[in-house]
Amino acid sequence: MNKASSALSGLYLLLILFFLYIPIIVMMIMSFNRSELYLLPFEFDLVWYQQLAQNDQLIGAARNSIVIALVNTVIATTLGTLTALCFARYEFRGKRVLQGMLVPTLTMPWLITGTAMLMFFFWSGIGRGLHSILLGHVALSLPYVVIIVGARLRSLGVSMEEAAATLGANGWQTFWRVTAPLMAPGIVAAALFAFAISFDQFVISYFLAPVGTSTLPVQIYSAIRKGFTPEINAISTIIILASMVLMIGFARFSKFGGER
Amino acid sequence: MTSSARRLRAIIGLSGPTALWLTVTVVLPLAAMLVFSFLTVVPVGGREAAFTLKHYTDFFTRPLYLTNAWRSVRLGLEVTFFCALIGYPAAYILAKAIKGRWREALLLLIVLPFWSNSLVRTFSWTMVLSDNGLLARTIHGILPFAPSFDLLYTYPAIVIGLVQSYLPYMILTCYISLQAIEDSLTEAAYSLGASRFDVFRRVILPLSLPGLIAGSVLTFVPVLGAFMEPRILGGQQAIMLGTLIENQFTASFNWPLGAALGFIMLAIVLLIMGLFYPVLKKHISVN
Amino acid sequence: MSAVGISNVAKYYGKVAALDDVSMTVQDGEFFGLLGPSGGGKTTLLRAIAGFVEPDRGEITIAGKAVSNIPINKRDIGMMFQNYALFPHLTVAENIGFGLSVRHRPKAEIAERVRQLLELVRLSGFEGRKPKQMSGGQQQRIALARALSTNPKVLLLDEPLGALDKKLREEMQFELKQIQRDVGITTVFVTHDQEEALTLSDRIAIMNGGRVEQIGAPRDIYERPRTAFAASFLGTANFFEGVVSGRGDGVTRIELPDGQAIFTTDEAPAGARVTAAVRPEKLLAGPVGAQGQEGRTNTIQGRVMAEVFAGNSVTYKVDAGNKPVTVFVQNRTDERFGPDQTIALTWAPYHTILVAA
């Protein structure tokens, strides 16, 4: 490839990055700007972060989001890892059915998943609430855990476990000394992903949130719809930085982009 | 205990909880949705529900629904088209022209926004697109006499926001299939006398088509169901199939109608998935 | 006492027999090779001995004890895997000490054993490294040390040198044999490489299609193959098909379809259709008419079709009565044969071996 076309290629990617990041960067800058109407010149101020610290509604919603994301991470990672192990180890009737059950939340619009949950939970008496939001979030993150941990298991193959058995290790010893440590990076990656899915999830939470309590994205949405305040910029800046940090962690553990 | 009984116990122990969880959160809700879409009201609190096809016949007879369903499909097609148009060349550059740590870093930079909060990202566009937002000010800075410029709450604003949302995903799926094409294949084509254009059209494009198709389907489907992005960026232009469905659940509380509209949307999704199933199988494999 | 006994073992995958009534005995301290093409059943047999494959029929014994009900981890075997299967998260020392560690041996004992084994495989000083930091040859030696760590009753090697390049493989062949002899451990190994089988094995079992074709010392199988498959898989062979037309003077006469006749010291009833194998290096090539002792020596004539120069020898492809015959000629004199030249090929009757087709 010659110099001119490689410079052009670089410029093209730069433009794309610009397109992807410009709104986020503008929002972040505005969160530090004193003017409520986003007027320039830029005047650095933490006033919106100070107001945010006093906004009990947003803080309460943030607390709900974090708690749900944490519980979701524990449940989804555990169930998903067990399922990935089961898929890797056993051929059984019903395996395809179970795999099929993992696909809808990955491929259907969340609008459908969310409204279907709303109707069934309401009709069956499970009802709305943080508990049903948790039910939904786990259903969304489970498939990703199965995929991520499953990919790790497949890349490991069975020979390491076979080697442990020939060396005299029993099932537990093989699992705890060989399988688990080798799976660990995949599990950590999956857990980070599951946390992010739940923490960022808006659609499902929106339909399942009861009046009064909600998660952070739902709270932000209603603030935006009501005519927002720059506090939203401040909390959004925090959220976006948090989820990017999570995802960089995920990329590290899942060897995103492939090994060279 | 026999070995087959032990096996069965292991299988149930390992995947039983997941199966149960997904039954409650996915299988039963979808079944309930299907049933409710044929009822006059949702049968709770002693209300009598009767069978009806009204919600489905309404969809096909009342222009409001058909028009908006078509608007959603069109939005999906447009967003998918722009994502592919912009994303494929970017994926090609990443896969073939950039090597080593740079490639990994750039790929991560591109995908990061996709993995971060979509609501917040959509919201951030309002600051760029509004009449005294960044875009308008930049343009007026260069051309002071340009007419007033307000993209926010227009149809293009929805498209811009959604393209930004799904572009990273399109780039990623295209990149995966482009990067799997070994250089020796293109070298072989050159050695047989193919021009750069021939190589692209007859080797690279056919081999990367599965990634392009997968990216397109997996962009189209969520855009079809989008309601938050149109609401935030589209203003009066926001009415789509997605927002109509949302409305049935959050404002007009006609759940059976919402369920029927949801199933019509699902039918479109399934049709497209079925059409491209052989290509998609690889990309959404959960085994 | 036999170290490993296989009797009438069969294993089916669906209707396909991966192992079809296989029987063999491996002696104490023996280096025993399973040789065959892929799909021949050799890997299935090795994995059945290890316990990864459960035979449908038959019995496997290790040190005289039937093992069918003994799980893999209690079988007291050492196995080296094709890709080595070294634990990437453990150090070299932890890899080698793994077997003793799961047996809850004291730390000092494990450390001492690891030290001994690293000395044996000439890798002292690498205890703290991770397997990924080692070269292919070094990984192979670590895998060997790990397989030997628990003093197993039998050592199983799956394509032990398959992942190494040619030069390293030749070095390691020698070293592997040396270590095996020093330790004195019964070893069963799988290979598809005939040279590896010949150099390493005390005895070889040639397997094809799930069945044992022949078992014997490398030299015996090479010189007296019992089947056409054994003759062609281990080395190269020319095959002659013909009808037995008489016996006398200690030799059997076989008439070939083109009217020429060859002789063998093997016996066969008159009138029988037989297949005879002759190794290319046993043939002596020369100009027509220079041969003497008719009747006791085989002589056939043929036309030179191609010549391939290989340094220390020359390979001629000769058309002998519409039948291609391969001849290796040592590069000892200046004598060469041109294309289309008719030459005579002679060999002793005991080099004509009757094989099952």
Automatic annotation (TrEMBL), chain A:
<keyword id="KW-0813">Transport</keyword>
<keyword id="KW-1003">Cell membrane</keyword>
<feature type="transmembrane region" description="Helical">
    <location>
        <begin position="66"/>
        <end position="88"/>
    </location>
</feature>
<dbReference type="GO" id="GO:0055085">
    <property type="term" value="P:transmembrane transport"/>
</dbReference>
<feature type="transmembrane region" description="Helical">
    <location>
        <begin position="203"/>
        <end position="222"/>
    </location>
</feature>
<feature type="transmembrane region" description="Helical">
    <location>
        <begin position="174"/>
        <end position="197"/>
    </location>
</feature>
<comment type="similarity">
    <text>Belongs to the binding-protein-dependent transport system permease family. CysTW subfamily.</text>
</comment>
<dbReference type="Pfam" id="PF00528">
    <property type="entry name" value="BPD_transp_1"/>
</dbReference>
<dbReference type="InterPro" id="IPR000515">
    <property type="entry name" value="MetI-like"/>
</dbReference>
<dbReference type="GO" id="GO:0005886">
    <property type="term" value="C:plasma membrane"/>
</dbReference>
<dbReference type="InterPro" id="IPR051789">
    <property type="entry name" value="Bact_Polyamine_Transport"/>
</dbReference>
<feature type="transmembrane region" description="Helical">
    <location>
        <begin position="234"/>
        <end position="253"/>
    </location>
</feature>
<feature type="transmembrane region" description="Helical">
    <location>
        <begin position="100"/>
        <end position="123"/>
    </location>
</feature>
<keyword id="KW-0472">Membrane</keyword>
<protein>
    <submittedName>
        <fullName>Peptide ABC transporter permease</fullName>
    </submittedName>
</protein>
UniProtKB/TrEMBL annotation, chain B:
<feature type="transmembrane region" description="Helical">
    <location>
        <begin position="257"/>
        <end position="280"/>
    </location>
</feature>
<feature type="domain" description="ABC transmembrane type-1">
    <location>
        <begin position="69"/>
        <end position="276"/>
    </location>
</feature>
<dbReference type="InterPro" id="IPR000515">
    <property type="entry name" value="MetI-like"/>
</dbReference>
<protein>
    <submittedName>
        <fullName>Peptide ABC transporter permease</fullName>
    </submittedName>
</protein>
<dbReference type="Pfam" id="PF00528">
    <property type="entry name" value="BPD_transp_1"/>
</dbReference>
<keyword id="KW-0813">Transport</keyword>
<feature type="transmembrane region" description="Helical">
    <location>
        <begin position="75"/>
        <end position="94"/>
    </location>
</feature>
<keyword id="KW-0472">Membrane</keyword>
<feature type="transmembrane region" description="Helical">
    <location>
        <begin position="20"/>
        <end position="42"/>
    </location>
</feature>
<feature type="transmembrane region" description="Helical">
    <location>
        <begin position="106"/>
        <end position="128"/>
    </location>
</feature>
<feature type="transmembrane region" description="Helical">
    <location>
        <begin position="153"/>
        <end position="178"/>
    </location>
</feature>
<dbReference type="InterPro" id="IPR035906">
    <property type="entry name" value="MetI-like_sf"/>
</dbReference>
<dbReference type="GO" id="GO:0005886">
    <property type="term" value="C:plasma membrane"/>
</dbReference>
<keyword id="KW-1133">Transmembrane helix</keyword>
<keyword id="KW-1003">Cell membrane</keyword>
UniProtKB/TrEMBL annotation, chain C:
<keyword id="KW-0067">ATP-binding</keyword>
<keyword id="KW-0813">Transport</keyword>
<protein>
    <recommendedName>
        <fullName>Spermidine/putrescine import ATP-binding protein PotA</fullName>
        <ecNumber>7.6.2.11</ecNumber>
    </recommendedName>
</protein>
<keyword id="KW-0472">Membrane</keyword>
<dbReference type="Pfam" id="PF00005">
    <property type="entry name" value="ABC_tran"/>
</dbReference>
<dbReference type="InterPro" id="IPR013611">
    <property type="entry name" value="Transp-assoc_OB_typ2"/>
</dbReference>
<keyword id="KW-1278">Translocase</keyword>
<keyword id="KW-1003">Cell membrane</keyword>
<dbReference type="GO" id="GO:0015417">
    <property type="term" value="F:ABC-type polyamine transporter activity"/>
</dbReference>
<comment type="subunit">
    <text>The complex is composed of two ATP-binding proteins (PotA), two transmembrane proteins (PotB and PotC) and a solute-binding protein (PotD).</text>
</comment>
<dbReference type="InterPro" id="IPR003439">
    <property type="entry name" value="ABC_transporter-like_ATP-bd"/>
</dbReference>
<dbReference type="InterPro" id="IPR017871">
    <property type="entry name" value="ABC_transporter-like_CS"/>
</dbReference>
<dbReference type="InterPro" id="IPR003593">
    <property type="entry name" value="AAA+_ATPase"/>
</dbReference>
<keyword id="KW-0547">Nucleotide-binding</keyword>
<dbReference type="InterPro" id="IPR050093">
    <property type="entry name" value="ABC_SmlMolc_Importer"/>
</dbReference>
